[in-house]
Amino acid sequence: MVLQSLNLCTILLFLAIASQVSQSLHFELHSGRTKCISEDIKSNSMTVGKYTVVNPNEAHPSPQSHKISIRVTSSYGNTYHHAEDVESGQFAFTAVEAGDYMACFTAVDHKPEVTLSIDFDWRTGVQSKSWSSVAKKSQVEVMEFDVKRLIETVNSIHEEMFYLREREEEMQNLNRATNSKMAWLGFLSLFVCLGVAGMQFLHLKTFFEKKKVI
């Protein structure tokens, strides 16, 4: 039991650390198409994002075909960021609702079709805080700066572990409810099958009696 608890804590700690790693993505998007990227964010967590359409010819301004629209929404449909016909931009907000947040990119419709290359950096939790700027502003020593960063990381991991525990309990409750419903459905199906079999038996008995077979 102790070994299982240690293994569970190790797994939760790994997931908590992994969840704090930023998403730095590079992807392609065709004209008139939409691509969405999701991120699971807990409530009261800070999240920041930065996106840029790569200019195919850096010596000249980006063509009109290299424009995108972006919308960042929560799992409840609330919009936290929206921009139209832009080449680059950024967003930052504190998540009020826990769950999957979606960043959807849409390339402007253009004929002939072109392919856009997009760089997207999405940071959540402790990774979203610019510790280097904090250290620069306060002029603290390197050791003190590292200690502050570690304390912030540990607090974030601690909160993430409680969040994962709550999600695990929700999933267990959902599994119990699903199993209970499936059990009742099984009993109902058995009752219906027995009823249909009884009706068929009575029908056949009546039919054979009329034909004087039995």
TrEMBL record:
Coiled coil: none annotated. Residues 34-149 form the GOLD domain. Pfam families: EMP24_GP25L. Residues 1-24 form the signal peptide. It is found in: Membrane. GO terms for cellular component: membrane. InterPro entries: Emp24-like, GOLD_dom. Belongs to the EMP24/GP25L family. This is GOLD domain. It comes from Arabidopsis thaliana x Arabidopsis arenosa.
